[in-house]
C-alpha cells in the first residue's frame, strides 16, 4: 500500500519528475485582483492573536498563542485554521504560526507544480497566478478542500482530494482490500463511498457450500473501522457512504439496518446509558459512521408511481429472487428515514443520463455527501467560492470578478491532479486519465437574503440557477482552454460524443433560466459562458471530465467566514450557543441589516426591525416591516416565537434550479419539522426524482435521541447542571450598516485658504442635519494633491455613512501636521497645521456641540444579569473580540456532539459541522 501511495505525479498522461517538461506552451494568466510587484499579503492589515478552543467540559481542546492573522478574519476562522490546518507539533519551532505562511505554503507549492507541469506560458504568468491565488485565499474569497491545507507543502506527494469512490468485487480479498483502502483515506483526511451491490446477497449460495454473508454483514466491519479511525492526525472524523441498488436481494435488510440499531440505542438510553452520540448507547450499536443511500432506477420509480411490482435479482446470475409491491419497498425507505434519517436516495438513471464519460463505464456510487458522482475508483479535489465576496457595494453580483476567480481556482485544481498521491493504482490511473474536479460555492443563502431575494421564491431560484450556471459554464470554458494548451484528458477521445452531449444539455438549461430576479449582466453572461464552453470544447476537447459540485463546505466555510454553507439557507435568524461555565451566546443574523438596506428601509427603521428581532426572537411583527418582505428572512427552521420557515419543498425546488448546472450533484439536507409524516418523506423523495435531482437526503427534526438544542432561549438549558443563577445573555457586536443619503440632500460649501493654497469644502447632510459626505476641491494644486484629497474625502464619506462618529474622526485628524500649513484668514481657525487639521476643526465647529461629554466607551456586548421575575435589570459593559461570526450556528436539534471538543454539531449538507472548533463529519 505504501508503494502505491507514493506514486509519482502524472502530467499530460506521463509520470513527471523534477525534469518533466510539457510539450505545450502553457497558459496566459490575466491579472485582475492584484498589482504587479505588490504582494497581496502586504495589502492586508495583520495582527497577532491567541487561538483557543474549549470543550464542553471547560478544558482547553486547543490553544496556540501569537498567531499572525488578517485583522478582517473572525476569531472563529482563526481558531479553525490554527487548530485544523497549521502543521507541526504544537510547542515546537516547526509549528506553523501564521495564516500568511500557511497560504504561502500551499500557493508556493502549487505554483512550483505548475512550472514543473508546463502550465504557464511565461514567468510573468507564473507570478500572476501566484498573486491572484494568494489574493483569493487571504481575502476569504475561496478555499480548497481540507486535505490540501493538511498536506500540500508538507509531504512530497500529498493526498489532496477530499472525495473518493471505491469499487469492491465479490471476493474476500477485494472486501478486505476495500477496508484497507478506506482506512488509508480516513488517515489522510478524506472520505469515501462504495456501492456494495456487487456482493452476493445473504440468500445466495457460496461455491464451497453454505450461503454468503451479504453486504449488510460486511457493513458492520467497515463501520467498526470507520468508528475507530479519526482522519489521522488530521482532526477529522472518518466519512463514508454505503449504497445498495434497489434490485439487490438484501435491499430490505439494508433499509432496516440503521432502524434496528437505532431502536437498540433507545433501549440502552431508557436503561440509563449515556444518550450522547459518543456515549455508551450509540457507540454500542452499528452503522453510526456512514451515510446510507438506496440506488433507484427510473424503472423502480415508475413502478412506485404505477403501484406495480418490483423484483429483486441475484447478483451472480441475475435470476429473479423476490417480488414485492414497489410502493411497499418505497414505504420502507420512507419509514426508515422518518425514524433515523437514513437511507437517502440516489436516482441512478438521472445520474447516468448526465454522465460525461459513459463511453468508459457507468456511475455506480458517490462520495460520503453525495455531491461527487463518477466512475468507480476515482477521486475529486474540491474548492469553493464565497459568494458574498462577489456582491458589489450596491448589492449586485460582480460577474467579471467571479468569472476570473473561477478561472484561477480551476487552474489551481487542475495542477493539483497530476501531483497528488492516490491510495490505489486504479484511483491514480483514473484520476490522471479523467481529471475530475469539484468547484463549488458557499454562502448562497446569505447572498440571496442580502440581495433582498427570498430563498424560497422564483427570483431566488433564478438567481441561484444563474450563478451556478455561470460557474459551471465558465469552468468548462476554462477547461477547454486548458485542453487547447495541455491536451484533453486521456479518456476524452472515447467519450467526446457523450461529453459534448451533456454540455449541450447544460447549455439548453442555461437558455431556459427565467430573467426574474437575475441581473441583466449575470443573465447574459451565464448563457455566453455555455456558448463559449461548447464552442471551445468542440474544437479542443476538455481537460477535465467534470468540473463542478455543490459540497457542504463545513470547515472551509468557517475558514472563509461564511454565514451559510453550500447551497443552504440560514438555519435561523436567532441562534443560541451554550457557553462553558454557564450562560449562552446569542447570535443575531448579520445579513438582516444588509437585506433591509437593499429593500430600501431607512436606517432608523432598520434599527427598529433588528431590535424587534433581538427582543422577540422573530422578525415577524417587527415595526415598519412590509408583509411582502417577510419571505426574504425565512430560514430553514421556524423560530420559537414565530410561524414562518422555508417549507421542505422549497429546499427541493432550489436543488432543482441548480442541479442542471453541475457536473456532480448537491450535498444538501432537506430539513423537515418534527411533525413531518412518513407520507411527507415519500412525497419528498418522489418529487426529487420527478424534478431531476441526482440524490436527496432528508432530516426530520428530533428523529434521534441525543441532547436537543433549539433556536429559543427558553428551551436551551445551561451547560452547568447545578447552576442556580440566571443565564447571562451575550450578544455579539453587530456589523456596521451603511446609511445612504437621499438622492436630494441639503449641503453647505465653504471656501478656505491655508498658507495661500485655496480650496473648497462641500458637506452633504442627512435629513436631520448631520453630515454624511464630504467633497474637497483644491483650486491651485496639481493632480496628485487633488487626487489624494478626493480619495481622502471619499474615505471620510464612507466612514460617516457606516456610522463612525464625527467626533472620533475629528479626534484622529485634528492637529495632524504636514504641508501646506499656515495662516487661514478664518478667525475661528487662524492657523492650520495641515489641510486635514483645518477640515476637521471646521467640521467640529459646524456639526459638533461646543461642549462634548466625556467619551463613552464603545462596548461590544451587553450582559443582562437579572432574571425576568426580578423588578430591575443590571447592565454591565464588557469587551469581547470584535468578531460577529465567532462560534456561530447552534440550533440543530439532536445532532451529534463534536468528536473533537464535545459541542453539539449542526447539519452541513448531508454531513455535520461543529461551530465551536470547525470539525466536520464530511469530506470537504
Automatic annotation (TrEMBL):
Residues 742-844 form the TSCPD domain. The keyword Repeat does not apply. Its EC number is 1.17.4.1. Residues 161-699 form the Ribonucleotide reductase large subunit C-terminal domain. Its cofactor is adenosylcob(III)alamin. It holds the Pfam family Ribonuc_red_lgC. It comes from the Bacteria. One of its GO terms (molecular function) is ribonucleoside-diphosphate reductase activity, thioredoxin disulfide as acceptor. Keywords: Cobalamin, Cobalt, Disulfide bond, DNA synthesis, Nucleotide-binding, Oxidoreductase. NCBIfam families: NrdJ_Z, PRK06556.1. This is Vitamin B12-dependent ribonucleotide reductase. It comes from Hyalangium rubrum. The lineage of its organism: Bacteria, Pseudomonadati, Myxococcota, Myxococcia, Myxococcales.
Amino acid at each position: 500500500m505504501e508503494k502505491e501511495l507514493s506514486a509519482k505525479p502524472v502530467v499530460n498522461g506521463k509520470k513527471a519528475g523534477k525534469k518533466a517538461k510539457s510539450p505545450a506552451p502553457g497558459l496566459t494568466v490575466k491579472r485582475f485582483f492584484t498589482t504587479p510587484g505588490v504582494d497581496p499579503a502586504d495589502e492586508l492589515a495583520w495582527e497577532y492573536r491567541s487561538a483557543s478552543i474549549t470543550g464542553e467540559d471547560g478544558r482547553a481542546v486547543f490553544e496556540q498563542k501569537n498567531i499572525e492573522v488578517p485583522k478582517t478574519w473572525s476569531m472563529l476562522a482563526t481558531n479553525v485554521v490554527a487548530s485544523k490546518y497549521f502543521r507541526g507539533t504544537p510547542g515546537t519551532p516547526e509549528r506553523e504560526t501564521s495564516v500568511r505562511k500557511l497560504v504561502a505554503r500551499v500557493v508556493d507549492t502549487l505554483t512550483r507544480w505548475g512550472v514543473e507541469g508546463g502550465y504557464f506560458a511565461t514567468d510573468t504568468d507564473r507570478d500572476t497566478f501566484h498573486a491572484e491565488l494568494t489574493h483569493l485565499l487571504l481575502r476569504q474569497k475561496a478555499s480548497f478542500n481540507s486535505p490540501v491545507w493538511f498536506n500540500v507543502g508538507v509531504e512530497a506527494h500529498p493526498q489532496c482530494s477530499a472525495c473518493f469512490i471505491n469499487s469492491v468485487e465479490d471476493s474476500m480479498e477485494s472486501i478486505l482490500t476495500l477496508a484497507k483502502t478506506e482506512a488509508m483515506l480516513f488517515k489522510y483526511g478524506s472520505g469515501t463511498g462504495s456501492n456494495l451491490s456487487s456482493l452476493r446477497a445473504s440468500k445466495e449460495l457460496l461455491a464451497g457450500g453454505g450461503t454468503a454473508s451479504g453486504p449488510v454483514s460486511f457493513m458492520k466491519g467497515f463501520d467498526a473501522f470507520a468508528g475507530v479511525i479519526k482522519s489521522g492526525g488530521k482532526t477529522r472524523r472518518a466519512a463514508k457512504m454505503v449504497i445498495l441498488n434497489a434490485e439487490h436481494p438484501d435491499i430490505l435488510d439494508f433499509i432496516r439496518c440503521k432502524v434496528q440499531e437505532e431502536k437498540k440505542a433507545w433501549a440502552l438510553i431508557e436503561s440509563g446509558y449515556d444518550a450522547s452520540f459518543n456515549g455508551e448507547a450509540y457507540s454500542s450499536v452499528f452503522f453510526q459512521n456512514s451515510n446510507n443511500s438506496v440506488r433507484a432506477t427510473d424503472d423502480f420509480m415508475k413502478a412506485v408511481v404505477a403501484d406495480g411490482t418490483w423484483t429483486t435479482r441475484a447478483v451472480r446470475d441475475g435470476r429473479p429472487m423476490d417480488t414485492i409491491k414497489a410502493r411497499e419497498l418505497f414505504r420502507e425507505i420512507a419509514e426508515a428515514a422518518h425514524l433515523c434519517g437514513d437511507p437517502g436516495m440516489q436516482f441512478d438513471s438521472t445520474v447516468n443520463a448526465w454522465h460525461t464519460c459513459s463511453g468508459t463505464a457507468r456511475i455506480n456510487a458517490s462520495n460520503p455527501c453525495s455531491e461527487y458522482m463518477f466512475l468507480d475508483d476515482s477521486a475529486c479535489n474540491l474548492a469553493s467560492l464565497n459568494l458574498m465576496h462577489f456582491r458589489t457595494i450596491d448589492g449586485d453580483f460582480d460577474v467579471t470578478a467571479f468569472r476570473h476567480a473561477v478561472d484561477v481556482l480551476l487552474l489551481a485544481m487542475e495542477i493539483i491532479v497530476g501531483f497528488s498521491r492516490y491510495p490505489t493504482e486504479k484511483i491514480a490511473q483514473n484520476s490522471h486519465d479523467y481529471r475530475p474536479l469539484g468547484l463549488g460555492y458557499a454562502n448562497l443563502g446569505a447572498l440571496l437574503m442580502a440581495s433582498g431575494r427570498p430563498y424560497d421564491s422564483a427570483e431566488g431560484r433564478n438567481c441561484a440557477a444563474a450563478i451556478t450556471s455561470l460557474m459551471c459554464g465558465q469552468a468548462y470554458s476554462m477547461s477547454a482552454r486548458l485542453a487547447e494548451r495541455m491536451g484533453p484528458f486521456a479518456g476524452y477521445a472515447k467519450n467526446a460524443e457523450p461529453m459534448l452531449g451533456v454540455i449541450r444539455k447544460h447549455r439548453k438549461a442555461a437558455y431556459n433560466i427565467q430573467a426574474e430576479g437575475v441581473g441583466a449582466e449575470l443573465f447574459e453572461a451565464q448563457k455566453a459562458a455555455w456558448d463559449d464552453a461548447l464552442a471551445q470544447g468542440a474544437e479542443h476537447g476538455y481537460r477535465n471530465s467534470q468540473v463542478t459540485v455543490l459540497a457542504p463546505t463545513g470547515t472551509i466555510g468557517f475558514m472563509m467566514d461564511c454565514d451559510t454553507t453550500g447551497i443552504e439557507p440560514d438555519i435561523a435568524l436567532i441562534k443560541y450557543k451554550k457557553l462553558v461555565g454557564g450562560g449562552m451566546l446569542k447570535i443575531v443574523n448579520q445579513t438582516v441589516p444588509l437585506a433591509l438596506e437593499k429593500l430600501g428601509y431607512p436606517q432608523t427603521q432598520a434599527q427598529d426591525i433588528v431590535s424587534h428581532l433581538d427582543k422577540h426572537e422573530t422578525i415577524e411583527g417587527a415595526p415598519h416591516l412590509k408583509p411582502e418582505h417577510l419571505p426574504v428572512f425565512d430560514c430553514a427552521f421556524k423560530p420559537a416565537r414565530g410561524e414562518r420557515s422555508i417549507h421542505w419543498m422549497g429546499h427541493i425546488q432550489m436543488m432543482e434550479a441548480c442541479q442542471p448546472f453541475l457536473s456532480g450533484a448537491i450535498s444538501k439536507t432537506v430539513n423537515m419539522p418534527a411533525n413531518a409524516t412518513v407520507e411527507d418523506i415519500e412525497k419528498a423523495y418522489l418529487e426529487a426524482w420527478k424534478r431531476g435531482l441526482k440524490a436527496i437526503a432528508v432530516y426530520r427534526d428530533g428523529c434521534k435521541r441525543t441532547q436537543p438544542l433549539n433556536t429559543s432561549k427558553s428551551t436551551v438549558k445551561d451547560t452547568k447542571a447545578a447552576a442556580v443563577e440566571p443565564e447571562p445573555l451575550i450578544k455579539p457586536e453587530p456589523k456596521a450598516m451603511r446609511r445612504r443619503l437621499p438622492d436630494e440632500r441639503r449641503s453647505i460649501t465653504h471656501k478656505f485658504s491655508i498658507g495661500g493654497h485655496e480650496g473648497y469644502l462641500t458637506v452633504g447632510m442627512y435629513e436631520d442635519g448631520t453630515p454624511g459626505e464630504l467633497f474637497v476641491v483644491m483650486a491651485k494644486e496639481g493632480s496628485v494633491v487633488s487626487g489624494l484629497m478626493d480619495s481622502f474625502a471619499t474615505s471620510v464619506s464612507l466612514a460617516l455613512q457606516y456610522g463612525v462618529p464625527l467626533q472620533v474622526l475629528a479626534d484622529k485628524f485634528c492637529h495632524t501636521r504636514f504641508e501646506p500649513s499656515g495662516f487661514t484668514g478664518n478667525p475661528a481657525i487662524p492657523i492650520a497645521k495641515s489641510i486635514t487639521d483645518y477640515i476637521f476643526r471646521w467640521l467640529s465647529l459646524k456639526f459638533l456641540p461646543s461642549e462634548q461629554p466625556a467619551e463613552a466607551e464603545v462596548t461590544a456586548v451587553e450582559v443582562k444579569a437579572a432574571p425576568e421575575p426580578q423588578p430591575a435589570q443590571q447592565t454591565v459593559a464588557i469587551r469581547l473580540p470584535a468578531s460577529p461570526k465567532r462560534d456561530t450556528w447552534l440550533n440543530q436539534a439532536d445532532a451529534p456532539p463534536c468528536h473533537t471538543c464535545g459541542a453539539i454539531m449542526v447539519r452541513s449538507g448531508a454531513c455535520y459541522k461543529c461551530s465551536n472548533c470547525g470539525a466536520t463529519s464530511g469530506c470537504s
